[in-house]
Amino acid sequence: MELAIIIEKFSLITIVLLVSLVVAMYMTLVERRFAAFFQDRLGPNRAGPFGLLQPLADGVKLFTKEEILPTNANKLLFVLGPSLAMFTATITSAVIPWGKDLTFGDRTISLQVADINIGVLYIFGVVSLGVYGMMVGGWASNNKYSLMGAIRAASQSISYEIAMGMAIIALLMVTGTLSVRGIVEGQSSTLWGISGTQGLGWNVFYQPLAFMIYLICMFAECNRTPFDLPECESELVAGYHTEHSSMKLGFYLFAEYINMFVSSAVVSALFFGGYNFPGQEALAATGIHTNWIAILGVVAFFLKIAFFLFFFVWVRWTIPRFRYDQLMRLGWNMLVPLAIANIGITGLVMYFTGHIN
Known about the structure:
Elements: H1 2-38, H2 54-64, H3 75-91, E1 102-104, E2 107-109, H4 119-140, H5 144-175, H6 180-185, H7 208-221, H8 233-236, H9 246-271, H10 280-285, H11 290-316, H12 324-352
Antiparallel strand pairs: 1-2
Helix pairs in contact: 1-2, 1-9, 1-11, 2-9, 3-4, 3-9, 4-5, 5-7, 5-12, 7-9, 7-12, 9-11
């Protein structure tokens, strides 16, 4: 039995890792094609039909390019930086429940690598470590542009993690659990928790301000436009990865897109019901096998993720980059006070509605 559990978890880890890498690969193509559409041009369309082999061509290019180590760089940390960024990006998804359990006879297979009761804290802890990859790589390059990008990444991450954490505190007050699966299970299949279903419905309807704060901070934590100051090309060449080449640069780029994928999964799980979908309970009442409902839940979850990935791309090619002072002012003078106010309002509402004594 123990061997079966090990094989099951190893298989799930492999699948999640492969899916993360494939999504990261093809998000580069999607972003370039959408950028071309917004700018009235074609975009990549030569490598394979409709340009579908372009990500593979880019991967081969990164693998085969010359490895360059700057003379005055700290070579160990120079290699460790992108490795750490990639590592933290891939392990964040360990606590995300991708669907309901599958049953095969008396065997139950969980579509979650680790169901720990402090899953939200785990996500925040790993996300906090992600900035070290940028800091280490930028400092070790011995390049002023890389160092400036690393400093920006650190200050931006610290600033927006505070507002993000406070936004999640209000959500946790409503859900009463730190388990990601517990939060997902607490959201019913209906959108706002009516018609006698279990759960409150999707949390976005009960914590809209927390969702908006989390969404803004999500862009800042992923270093995506309009918060891409750590790699601001017009000022810092390429920011913290200016001196990196070959697959070390590829790790930084892959880490960014994997972070986008994981962030989209987390926001879908926390605020949009995760693998729950409208009509789920009615479908279960027809007698359909629970495995089919679980598979449909996985599909629904990935559709939600796809929406937020598109939103990342849409915002990048719609909104201009903030200035650094505007970035800091938004984080400290607006988002943090709003998050604190949201915690207070949530506590008062819960007190007067009898949810807490």
